[in-house]
Amino acid sequence: MQANVFLGLLVVFLCFPTFAANNDEKEVNFAVFSLNSTFPTLSKSKARMLYKGRTKKLNGSIKIVLVDLPESSIHREEFYEMLLGKSIPQMNGYWASLSFSGKGTPPEELNGDDIKDILEWLNNNPNGIAYAPVESVPENANILITISQGE
Question: Which of 15, 69, 109, 134 could disulfide-pair with 73, CB 3.0 to 4.6 Å?
Fold first, then answer.
């Protein structure tokens, strides 16, 4: 009898491991931003086009450069899941096929996901666009779009 109760509790625990944890999790929202104040705001479809390599320009003429967080970054995984509904392996496969066909190259990957690394890259790339959790983006940044969970 005790074994059956134990097994029942074990099944509930294994099937619902985040049941209690979900209340404590903080929802992360991301900002796609630049230090270039002339960049216009983005629609969600335009942001998706940029991060799928379908366009490299804003307003038809401003050539931009994207930067990506390291593959090991939890924020990279969350960002692509929220914006494109894709996992890191799916995005890697997507970029590999674009690269192989000559239709695109993936964004440059940073070595770290600290906001200082992102800002240093943006300072060196005036037409650069990055993403980061909203709360880490400095006030002087030009936020082009905010990506929220569930959108």
Answer: 69
Query: The whole model's pTM is what?
Result: 0.79
Length of the chain: 151
Q: Which residues pair with 8 in a beta bridge?
A: none
Q: For residue range 85-122, what is the model confidence (pLDDT) as tens digits?
A: 999 999 999 999 988 888 888 999 999 989 999 999 99
> Could you tell me what percentage of the chain is helix, strand and coil, using 3-state DSSP and rounding each to the nearest 5?
40, 20, 40
Pick the CATH number of 26-147 from 3.40.50.1980, 2.40.50.100, 3.30.2390.10, 3.40.190.10: 3.40.190.10
Strand partners, 108: 67
